[in-house]
Amino acid sequence: MKKLTTLIAATALASLMASAAWSKTFVYCSEASPEGFDPGLYTGGQTFDAAAHTVYNRLVEFKRGTTEIEPALAESWEISADGKEYTFKLRKGVKFQTTEYFTPTRELNADDVIFSFERQYKEDNAWNKYVPGASWEYFAGMGLPDVLDKIEKVDDLTVKITLKRPEAPLLANLGMPFISIVSKEYADKLQADGKMELMNQQPLGTGPFTFVAYQPDAAIRYKANPDYWGGKQAIDDLVFAITTDAAVRAQKLKAGECHLMSYPNAADVAELKADPNLHVSEQAGLNIAYLAYNTLVPPFDKVEVRKALNMAINRQAIVDAVFQGAATVAKNPIPPTMWSYNDAVEDDKFDPEAAKKMLEEAGVKDLKMKIWAMPVARPYMLNARRAAELMQADLAKIGVTAEIVSYEWAEYLKLSSAKDRDGAAILGWTGDNGDPDNFLDTLLGCDAVGGNNRAQWCNKEFDDLMTKAKETADVAERTKLYEEAQVIFKREAPWNTLDHSLAVVPMSKKVSGFVQSPLGDFVFEGVDIAE
After folding, report:
1. Maximum distance among all Cα pairs of the chain, rounded to whole angstroms
2. CA pair distance 385, 318, nearest whole angstrom
3. 3-state helix, strand, coil in the chain (%, to 5)
4. Residue 188: how many CA atoms within 13 Å on its side-chain side?
């Protein structure tokens, strides 16, 4: 069956690439299938790469290789003195893509921007629940429904966003994939035709690449958008060759079957570096891997139990086994390269005897629990199954029986966010915008419970600090608040902080123009390949 699946995938990829045989085609060996093609509905990096960074644009975006905001669909903006009004002037002459399934009749205007926001927070909007079971998790997790007062059209090329209170991270948040701007005209046509689900299957935006076809679990094909406001790309065709096995991705790269790959196994990096035809780009990752306890479910509702489990797990052994030196043990929920990192926080020590004693004192005996292991490699966790096995062995030494469970990636993300989820889940995060709020509030704030907050942890003391930090533009004051929040986090231990990894991107030496992102994105705008 495995051989048959491989053959089908290879045949599908060959079919998708056939028509591009005489054009300049760039092949990216990606690690997982997208959850869908509407970036507002999902949180997975593979979905953002496959939709937000190819097909779509935002009002503002991050300058390649940085966390610096620059103009995109909005060519300029003004912020009121009280920090509550943001007025965006849209770029004139931006065209939506023309595809086999839709031909636009007008250019981007304020209606598209307003629709892109309103569909995510207005429950009476026809598009708010157009995908059954899906939700606008990022929009809610960033707290936008609470802070947004209104968004209004000043004229065709001017949009004003009014907030209920100042929101210091707002511009950075607007550069994130979830708030990509979609075509209201396309949405209206799909709704009139009774085919709203196609918004998530046949995307259409203003970005550098136009969607062509998707063969599930095998390949995605795009073509350069000839009308792109940023200029037509040097590569004519872009193919995502979905290859879930990291070792196979490396083999394909070495064989010249793809030009760039994601997330190599740590054990393969030395060999990839030694290949004269390849270049390996490296940088410190803006990321965190963690084990999230469900603090709503006994006995994980007891901080003593969470602390005990933290002390029982040898995180250095996990880093050594999974990353082979390409990561460091984490102690805080934000990476050390991020401003406001509190290095004065004292980390949990690996002390199995103390852990066993603490569990006994908490009245917990013969604990049985589940460890959820991610099924895919991410930059912050290359092999969650291996990490879970090491945790399982460590916990057994203090009398805790751990069962390892896993699910298909999209299902894993959905089920792990449930408030009644049992056990502890391995997950992680690569920063979306370079702001500490994007880690601390997005992953641990009360608004994110049932979503990105996989620990289901709502602490008023911590949450009040998040609110205060959002409402001040003074970086020094925000730094103090975030440093204090990290102390509370460590005291309460909703997670076991596992690692911060080195981000590694191997590619062919024929590739030029690829800039590694501190946000972990794979962006192919500006990329070229030598003939």
Report:
1. 70
2. 11
3. 35, 20, 45
4. 9
Predicted model pTM: 0.81
Task: Report the relative pairing of strands 158-163 and 85-90 from DSSP bridges.
Answer: antiparallel
In what helix (H) or strand (E) does residue 213 lie, and over which residues does it extend? strand 209-215
| Alpha carbon of residue 497 to chain centroid | 18
Q: Which of 239, 199, 225, 270 is CA-nearest to residue 95? A: 225
- With CA atoms as reference, report the closest residue to 274 among 531, 34, 506: 506
CA atoms within 13 A on the CB side of 309: 33
> Parallel, antiparallel, or unpaired: how do β-strands 287-293 and 495-508 relate?
antiparallel
Distance separating alpha carbons of residues 471 and 235, to the nearest angstrom: 44
3-state secondary structure of 381: strand
Q: Which residues of the chain have pLDDT under 70?
A: 1-22
Looking at the chain, the whole-number percentage of residues with pLDDT higher than 90 is: 88
The label of the residue with tokens 């069956």 reads 1
Q: What is the average pLDDT value for the chain, to the nearest integer?
A: 94
Separate counts of helices (H) and strands (E) for the chain: 17, 20
For residue 321, how many other CB atoms are within 10 A of its CB? Answer: 15
DSSP for 14-57, written as a single string? HHHHHTTTTS-EEEEEESS--S-S-GGG---HHHIIIIITTT--
- What is the predicted pLDDT for the residue at 292? 98
Residue 93, φ and ψ in degrees, nearest 5: 85, 15
Q: pLDDT digit string (tens) for 193-207?
A: 999 999 999 999 999
Amino acid at 95: K
Mention every residue, 6+ apart, whose C-beta is less than 8 A from residue 366: 399, 401
**What letter would DSSP give residue 95?**
B
pLDDT digits (tens, 9 = 90+) for 294-346: 999 999 999 999 999 999 999 999 999 999 989 999 999 999 999 999 999 99
Q: Please tell me what DSSP assigns to residue 98.
A: P
pLDDT at residue 138, as a whole number = 86
How are beta strands 327-329 and 495-508 bridged, if at all?
A: antiparallel
By C-alpha distance, which of 468, 433, 436, 461 is closest to 446? Answer: 461
Q: How far apart are the first and last CA of the chain?
A: 37
Phi, psi of 293 (to 5 degrees): -80, 145
The two structure tokens encoding residue 162: 């009014």
Count of C-beta atoms within a 10 Å radius of residue 66? 13
Phi and psi at 462, nearest 5°, equal -65, -45
Long-range contacts of the stretch 474-478 (C-beta < 8 A, 24+) = 475/339, 478/168, 478/340, 478/436
Q: 520-531: string of b/e by CB count within 10 Å (b at 16+)?
A: bbbbbbbbebee
Token couple for 122: 């207005």
The structure tokens listed for 330 are: 């984490």
Identify the residue whose tokens are 């600090």: 465
